[in-house]
Specification:
With about 350 residues, the chain is an alpha/beta fold. Helix content is about 35%, strand content about 20%. It has 11 helices and 14 strands. Helix 3 packs parallel to helix 4.
Length: about 350
């Protein structure tokens, strides 16, 4: 098979969906959610490296979204929806590299959707697209999306929000949905996320009681999370429904030092921010940790999100609490969990 999604005789009852970036944390869960949905006929997963993982009802094709990458129109022709998830977190020391994939590559995806005549585009935005906001009350999807400009991740997510503003005006026949989830965790993503954010500085087997005696309690360290499978359920509802626009996705409770300490059976330890930030910055500059201190700055400024729209218009309810998602992730860290895809390899 050539990997294209095409309609055939007697094959008009279900939706054909293309998932771009189908082998990562979110992509694997979205593929599972779509293939089990009764309204979906087939799923085509696109990734730079075709996985050994072969769930029923899913076909694969190798594709690179970078500016000098593959012909995406070829893969999108005949599809009812494209779910765009592909995103490069590293290398944080080379922001031009991530910009080429995350911005220029994403623009290629959007333009190919229009050229192929696909009626729906579901784009993975993020809480990281939001401008700094309050920690004492949630904000809805109307909160400004200018990101935290020092952090490449936030800057790129915010730029895509501006691009999609213009894209929707130019392509009114395309139903555009922007998903803005909080931090996404599941057991199978643990090895990948450790590589992306922590590297090998902290041994994974120590991430459990009683080896974590205290959790740093830093000013502004309150964030939202959810299980990746719950986010995928919202993506699937966006694919099969008629909704447009942005949707916040997060589970309760917001995660602060007290809640993280409870999960780890530790105690919160109040610390001043400057020395912690300086230590992280030094570790990043020495390439001991891959996560940029600018992303740390952004996390401290992220607003809390109101998810009422997802509940009312998508009929979405998370099955897992934010704490349960983190607990599953920590278990995956200790077990060196993963999946048989290149990004999620243990």
């Amino acid at each position: 098979m050539d990997g294209m999604v095409r309609r055939g005789a007697g094959d008009d009852d279900g939706l054909r969906v293309v998932v771009v970036g189908a082998t990562g944390n979110v992509g694997t869960s979205v593929v599972e959610a779509l293939r089990s949905h009764p309204a979906v006929e087939s799923v085509l997963g696109l990734a730079r490296r075709v996985p050994n993982w072969n769930p029923d009802g899913t076909r694969w094709a190798a594709a690179d979204i970078d500016p000098d990458g593959d012909d995406l129109v070829h893969h999108f022709t005949g599809a009812d929806a494209v779910v765009h998830l592909a995103w490069k977190f590293q290398p944080t020391h080379a922001p031009v590299t991530t910009w080429r994939t995350n911005v220029l590559g994403s623009i290629r995806v959007c333009e190919a959707v229009a050229e192929a005549g696909v009626p729906a585009l579901i784009h993975a935005s993020s809480v990281g697209a939001y401008s700094p906001g309050p920690k004492d009350r949630p904000v809805d999807e109307s909160w400004p999306t200018h990101g935290w400009p020092q952090a490449a991740y936030c800057r790129e997510k915010a730029y895509m929000e501006r691009f999609l503003d213009a894209y929707e005006l130019d392509h009114r026949n395309v139903r555009v949905v922007r998903m803005r989830p909080g931090f996404l965790f599941k057991r199978e993503s643990a090895s990948q996320q450790r590589r992306i954010f922590a590297g090998t500085l902290i041994p994974a087997h120590l991430m459990r009681p009683p080896f974590v005696p205290a959790v740093p309690d830093l000013p502004g360290l309150v964030f939202q999370a959810l299980h990746t499978d719950d986010a995928a359920a919202a993506y699937a509802q966006a694919v099969v429904g008629r909704v447009r626009g942005a949707f916040n996705l997060a589970a309760e409770p917001p995660l602060d030092a007290a809640e993280l300490a409870r999960v780890l059976a530790a105690r919160p330890l109040r610390l001043p921010l400057p020395p912690v930030r300086a230590a992280l910055s030094a570790a990043w500059r020495l390439r001991l940790v891959p996560a940029s201190p600018d992303l740390f700055d952004a996390v401290l400024r992220l607003p809390l999100m109101d998810c009422s729209r997802a509940r009312s218009e998508l009929g979405w309810r998370p099955r897992y609490s934010a704490s349960e998602a983190v607990q599953e992730f920590l278990g995956g860290l200790r077990e060196r969990a993963g999946m048989d895809t290149a990004p999620l390899a243990a």
